[in-house]
Design brief:
Number of helices: 10
Shape: elongated
Number of strands: 19
Mean pLDDT: 96
CATH topology of the largest domain: TIM Barrel
CATH superfamily of the largest domain: Alanine racemase
Strand order of the largest sheet: 3-4-5-6-7-8-9
CATH architecture of the largest domain: Alpha-Beta Barrel
Distance between the termini: 25 Å
Helix content: 25-40%
Strand content: 15-25%
Structural class: alpha/beta
Number of domains: 2
Radius of gyration: 24 Å
Largest sheet: 7 strands, parallel
């Protein structure tokens, strides 16, 4: 028999597909699937086929290696790479039909040269920075391109895109200003479809509709409308197995540095999940797991392989029991708040030691 895992990550692929369909129904234009970081840690090899079956025809990743890893799963699909092409990689883009997002004049020049060498036009997205100040053409580069559109010779512009800074905050001033700057940028460029909304942007209304939306987090159940009910179906559940129960007296401490001290005789359950599994150290003395729907607080430091929970009020917990770490009672948002981070970091941190149980 295989060894029993210390943690089980339940992944509902049917919910991923349903979330994509819900977003596609809501958005006027086409809807892609962002599957970077191994589909936010959930396994691109399983997520991409589920999205393909749902009807997704456009995919985005961060790195070329991620595109090559999924190309065989959707050989006819548009797969675009956010981080842009390194000159040494351009041959692989052309060979495998991967579409770069061009983030600078230098990348544009290299891609145009590749088109010339191939004696054919090559597809690309053009990223215009409207406020994020990470990737994309800034105002200076945009002005240079607007004055000399021949820089795009040989490049078939699939989309002009930008990335919203504060889309999850519905009334943020950034949203309207970015939409305006994006419209201004498109006006000085050759006509091309636009790509504007991310997960949260899809919920900002008609002014943020475009030819292609690029949701990521919402596909995996992260709430794209913080502060309001989550319109997406939950995708992920996480269970941790209790390895041992320890009875301690009032005044005794638990874990490294003794940062939690019992104020009564207590039962402590040690669970085989730690920060090496992505159960973040910032959860220490915060957060709540559940057993049969009843809360059990995390106490003491999260260590590399273990976390400890006060199960004094849950007498049914015993070695071999499973605690709900993420699930119906412990939403991603609640878990992220306890760790003082966001659901993105929680998902992408979940490690390789969990047994992954997929449902379709």
């Amino acid at each position: 028999m295989p060894p029993e895992p210390s943690g089980i990550l339940d992944i509902d692929l049917g919910a991923v597909a349903a979330n994509w369909r819900a977003l596609a129904d809501r958005h006027a234009g086409a809807v892609a699937g962002v599957v970077k970081a191994d589909a936010y840690g959930l396994g691109a090899a399983r997520v991409v086929p589920a999205l393909v079956e749902a009807g997704c025809r456009h995919f985005f990743v961060a790195h070329l290696s991620e595109a090559l890893a999924i190309r065989h799963l959707a050989p006819w699909a548009d797969i675009a790479v956010f981080n842009g092409p390194h000159r040494a990689e351009i041959g692989l883009y052309v060979e495998h039909g991967v579409i770069p997002v061009l983030n600078s004049l230098g990348e544009m020049e290299a891609w145009a040269a590749a088109a010339g060498a191939a004696n054919r036009t090559l597809p690309a997205l053009l990223h215009v920075d409207t406020g994020m100040a990470r990737l994309g053409l800034d105002r200076r580069e945009l002005a240079i391109l607007a004055a000399d559109r021949s820089r795009l010779d040989g490049i078939a512009l699939r989309y002009v895109m930008t990335h919203l800074v504060s889309a999850e905050i519905a009334d943020a001033a950034d949203n309207a200003s970015q939409a305006s700057r994006f419209a201004d940028a498109r006006a000085v460029l050759p006509p091309a479809p636009g790509s504007l909304a991310n997960s949260s942007g899809i919920f900002l209304g008609a002014d943020f509709a475009s030819d292609l939306a690029r949701p990521g987090a919402a596909l995996y159940g992260i709430n794209p409308t913080p502060g309001r009910p989550n319109p997406m179906r939950p995708v992920v559940g996480l269970r941790g197995r209790v390895l041992q129960i320890r009875d301690i007296g009032a005044g005794e401490t638990v874990g490294y540095n003794g940062i939690w001290r019992a104020n009564r005789p207590s039962r402590i359950a040690t669970v085989g999940v730690g920060y090496a599994d992505g159960w973040l150290r910032s959860h220490s003395n915060h957060g709540t797991a559940f057993f049969d729907g009843g809360p059990v607080p995390l106490v003491g430091r999260v260590s590399m392989d273990l976390a400890t929970y006060d199960v004094t009020d849950q007498p049914g917990v015993e070695p071999g029991s499973w605690l709900e770490l993420i699930g119906p009672n412990a939403s991603l948002e609640r878990v992220a708040d306890a760790a003082r981070t966001n659901g993105y970091e929680i998902l992408t941190s979940l490690g390789s030691r969990y047994e992954r149980a997929y449902r379709s």
